[in-house]
Amino acid sequence: MTTGLLKGKTGIIFGALDDQSIATHVARTCVAEGARIVLTNAPVAMRFGEIQKLGEELGAEVIPADATDLGDLEALVKKSVELLGGPLDFVLHSIGMSLNVRKKREYTDINHEWMLKTFDISAISFHKTMQVLYKLDAMKEWGSVLALSYIAAQRSFHDYSEMAESKALLESFARSFGYYYARKKQVRVNTISQSPTMTTAGSGVKGITEFFNYADKMSPLGNAPAAACAHYCAVMFSDYTRYVTMQNLYHDGGFSSMGMAPEILE
Amino acid sequence: MTTGLLKGKTGIIFGALDDQSIATHVARTCVAEGARIVLTNAPVAMRFGEIQKLGEELGAEVIPADATDLGDLEALVKKSVELLGGPLDFVLHSIGMSLNVRKKREYTDINHEWMLKTFDISAISFHKTMQVLYKLDAMKEWGSVLALSYIAAQRSFHDYSEMAESKALLESFARSFGYYYARKKQVRVNTISQSPTMTTAGSGVKGITEFFNYADKMSPLGNAPAAACAHYCAVMFSDYTRYVTMQNLYHDGGFSSMGMAPEILE
Amino acid sequence: MTTGLLKGKTGIIFGALDDQSIATHVARTCVAEGARIVLTNAPVAMRFGEIQKLGEELGAEVIPADATDLGDLEALVKKSVELLGGPLDFVLHSIGMSLNVRKKREYTDINHEWMLKTFDISAISFHKTMQVLYKLDAMKEWGSVLALSYIAAQRSFHDYSEMAESKALLESFARSFGYYYARKKQVRVNTISQSPTMTTAGSGVKGITEFFNYADKMSPLGNAPAAACAHYCAVMFSDYTRYVTMQNLYHDGGFSSMGMAPEILE
Amino acid sequence: MTTGLLKGKTGIIFGALDDQSIATHVARTCVAEGARIVLTNAPVAMRFGEIQKLGEELGAEVIPADATDLGDLEALVKKSVELLGGPLDFVLHSIGMSLNVRKKREYTDINHEWMLKTFDISAISFHKTMQVLYKLDAMKEWGSVLALSYIAAQRSFHDYSEMAESKALLESFARSFGYYYARKKQVRVNTISQSPTMTTAGSGVKGITEFFNYADKMSPLGNAPAAACAHYCAVMFSDYTRYVTMQNLYHDGGFSSMGMAPEILE
Hints:
homotetramer; 266 residues; 7-stranded parallel β-sheet; 9 strands; globular
């Protein structure tokens, strides 16, 4: 399905790593819908080469940038505006990584230096990106900024650890910055709270398969796949959703509104 | 803007009364986006003749139905399926009327018989509609059912009176029925919580202008206009939002996420 | 444990049926904490005689009243004010009954006449009670009105059926009426969203045992027992919580904040 | 009003600075209700001497501790357990400070190093405190841990800046850690979302007086005073609220449930 929803629009996609990444799905969908994009990821992610291939496939420049580094972000935004011929219509932030999860520290035995680093990578990078876009006046009027979140921001999921706090931060940044960006340029800022997704990043989380199957059963429509998430992102980047801002939007097959599914008991 | 988002889709639109109605905007947008529709409203609303004109403009049949009457709803749905050539892709419920507000009864001096009637018209009609669609198996797989709500379902707005409870009911019906319809046919059920809108129905609410201006100032993007709401509805009817269900979606220029806007204090 | 938390206070307790009723626990706790109370229930509930015994045990008058009948409510309130020596400090609404659940109608095959009756009994009775109290000016300043709710007001629980909507209504009434009562007399209005409880009323709900055990495992502290709920009600009636109003308060061992408990998967 | 609600209980109160501090009110109330406590604050806060006077007044030891320092926290907890004769019943975290607000940096021109420091002081200190209590097994069964929050965690308040994110973090820590502490020892963890309060800390926030007056008008009961907050904290530390955990509790005179107050328009 394509309708040219994003015809003539331009944007930056953060976080495409490989074919499983939600950001990869979003990038492909945006281009299929008529947009021109720039891809970016941390320099270390470049090593695997898949993002370069994606860039070639989509006719998109790939610009490495450490999303925790204001200098890198500035260079990225300036270069993107130049390449894409002017201010941007959309930006996707799809970045998340937890040092304490990676290093298997229990939530009650956290290394707080690592926690700060996790917040910087997974959430503060979103504020930094918006601050750079805002200062460089790099978004078009009625542009759309999105970040990917998870319902652990609202409810406790044992093994999600400090990523719960990262997502709570991320969603708060969307509300707070959304106010300023709406007043300045009618730019919308939202988060999409996506079903658990079997990505390379996600697969590092302990018990992700149990998460995944439980959520799939609990969700009346089943877990939302990455391809469907890409369609939802496209819609949020389009002119059809101009008055939606400062929201956290559940794209989860109904999970967030379930109390108990009889399917779980069986 | 049109992209053919609803090409080949069919649906029923409840509640178009005149040019100010949100439902009228939705009807026009759906047809512009490629859908074929049936229009319906209460028999009494036919008298004014504007819905007939709208039907002619859009090439849409107009079928009167009292949305509180199961018999009327059954006839409407059967006829619509017949006219549109099979099960439906979407349904919009845009119905609301408060007897106590109309008759200027204070919220602390409610006539409870009228309250029951208000609930029947404004909210239970939504359950009835879904029950009829469900029993007649009149929706296509992955179809989409929407109702229009208001943030008074969550927060107190003095003059909104028993309509607050009507909207709370409406949103609860969306969650409850959404579970069943997802399991049966992957049909999605959602509500859109729209900014205050200057419709003929809305203008009956005491203090609506103050509401409207206050909400406009409080919302970083300003109040969402009816035309923008129609675009959002189209998106929710489309295949781009298949995994969104049992949600209440704020389409309000950011109002719902505001605590205090400095613009209010000035 | 008693501390005389409600010393000198007076109130009405609706809904004590037998020893399992939450209202019975609340009545005993209030009296133990120093309050004098009036007990009330529907005339039909009197037949079983347990409420009379409770009245004798607690030195409390028992006044039958149909909570859907404004005349009965007026008589009840007037008599209570007279018996208790003046305006009241607190009122507990613990009433809920679903005709469609009782008669085993599926949620997708609801009898809507019964639904209206269910709403009248389970939710509108709360508005009626407050309206009568308000008009008769029967509450003391900083008084406290409470109703018992359930998380089905926010999330879908398959077998809870139209009680979900009843609780959504109930909580909306608390917010809406709470505004007026705060402005008039600093009276607080709140709902407590209690864990599933094995009461005589609750046991009529299909699958209540599965509900109960699931919720117990999902709740980090386990399901909150009725006796604990009574303590929480006492606190909400006391002067320690004067600035809490228009809130829905979860008393559920943490259930409402859980996304997934590993205990469920085992 | 005192009832001996906390007779025999012991706890630590963080954050008493001077007579305006909410923590000072909580300390006085806890002692009046029968508790024995330890007071703590950052070493720099000791200079002003008021906390020493408060300690003398209440017969409470004052132990300086930097709440961002695990070593300080360990020493504090160990000493407190020793002084108070065993594991604790309650802990209050009332700490908040924003470097960017202090240094008048706009939210769209944040210094992100300062932001990290703000989070460490205002929110991560809460996780650190719980982690130390947990590892040292320093809480009694059914103990209660509380932190003070603000509704900026949910809604945008222009001048609150990065404190919005700090409070979002704080509330997320309560949910996440609450799960573990409930499972281990039935310890409850909650946050109280208090009305804006004219404290020495609060008065550093730009536009606090406008905040305060606006919130006061918007709240049907008016802003909740610090003394009332202390009573609410006492109740949350008591055995009357044992099954409330992982909650954010609004103590705000109804502010959080208001959409529009007619008083604002006048």
